[in-house]
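User: Could you write out the 3D structure of this protein bound to 6-O-phosphono-beta-D-glucopyranose? I've included everything you need below.
Assistant: Certainly. Input first, then the structure.
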Amino acid sequence: MEKRSSTKTKSTIFFIFGGTGDLTKRKIIPALYNLFLDRWMPKNFVIIGVSLDEMDDKKYKAELMSAVDQFSRKGKSKKEEWTKFSSHVTYQIADINDLSTFKPLGAIIERYKEEWEETPSIIYYCAVAPHFFGAIAENISQNKLENDPQTTRIIVEKPFGRDLESAKELNNKLLSIFNENQIYRIDHYLGKEVVQNIMAFRFANEIMEPLWNRNHVEHVQISVTEQIGIGDRGEYFDHAGVLRDMIQNHLLQLICIIAMEPPISFDADEVRNRKVDVLKAMRKSLPEEIDTMSVRGQYSSGWIKGTQVLGYREEENVNPESNTETYAALKFYVDNWRWQGVPFYLRTGKRLIKTASMITIQFKEVPHKIFISEKSGTPKQNRLVISIQPDMAIRFQLQSKRPGLEMYLDTVDILFDYSGSKRLDSPKAYETLLLDAINGDQTLFMRADQVEAAWELIMPILNYWEKNIDPDFPNYSVNSWGPEKAEALIAKDGFHWFNLPDKTKKTNERAENLEDSD
Ligand code: BG6
């Protein structure tokens, strides 16, 4: 199947519930605007912001323009371009809790059908808190706004449920109104440029597949560290924690892409089938194993660049005795032929020393070492390092002879770096995902069984952590690499966490730095 082709896209009516909210302003509108500037939007389209606020079109457009100016990767909008784009934008007041206020949406659809003289695609984007998803779906159904399954789609944001049971309930609710092929569950990590490239890297290169298994891979690390704290999301986060907020979705999806079997085609269901296989093959922890397979953390106050920052328990809308984790490190096994015995380590946390999302695949040692004298240096194992952000690069680390009269080995990088013009041109994840939704391509969206399999996997840990308060909380300081126990989790297997090389150093030094920076 041809993906994201520039073939003429169908006319589209795009409703955004939560039209005045943060997500709409930070992500959705800047993404749609950039798609418009890059000529990916269909000739006929209309964006209807739907919300409770009293507002006219003029004020709504002004708010969106200032959001674009602030958040678009292309910088401030230009007057002429914005005027053209905003002629496709309108505002509609409606209350999700009041069925009757959805009635005008039907009239809007009819009006555009007549004007465009065709049946447009209709996209309902739920950019609201998850407990509204069901009500929105119900209102769409009651008002008969979803009558053509070929052209109507609903996009729902994460978090998709707060545990397995609620995710199932939500799936059942949505599936009682829509078909699975109408439901687009977002995990924005799947839209990131480098994440998409992993598929190309794995399945469009002959040399990868023979190495990509337990015979050659020693272990895999997936690390998403963030410097930011929880900001003003205390209320949400204190009921979530990083296990729900990051691991259940983003990090597990990354594992799926690394560990999946080659799909027979790039068809949405084929790709998603292979990903679900990974989640099903991942070993679930028994309660008595959880303390040895996982580490949780919570940040205490500390200093960042001369400024004192609050500890987690002092943050706004957080319980001062909270047991919620702001850091998690986990070890998993994927029980299948390809990965038997290969540990996969995951870590993520807030208020850490560095913001970096990266995947490291460490290959085994050479079977027989011939460069063993002190004069040869210390040969290192090969590594494939996939930097997702803020650096966007894929680097292969190899051993090579340092030029000179002696046989001295250095680590060198074969580097595919996205920096420079390619990086600037890279679309943001939301641009990719919204265009796919407009084109009806579900490959990068989560299917019901994927979401449920991911919840199933983490439920034992969630339950255990909720029942057993961690007496050591808070157990790491802001601006650190997280709790010490997380080092022990991986050190007891003979490994250590890899960190991103420092961009300012030269290639060889950077390669060394990857190992030495923790
Ligand atoms: C979101 C989480 O899904 O992803 C946030 O709710 C997190 O807590 C964010 O900060 C990270 O996304 P990104 O794209 O900045 O890595």
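The first strand starts at residue 12 and ends at 17.
User: Perfect, thank you.
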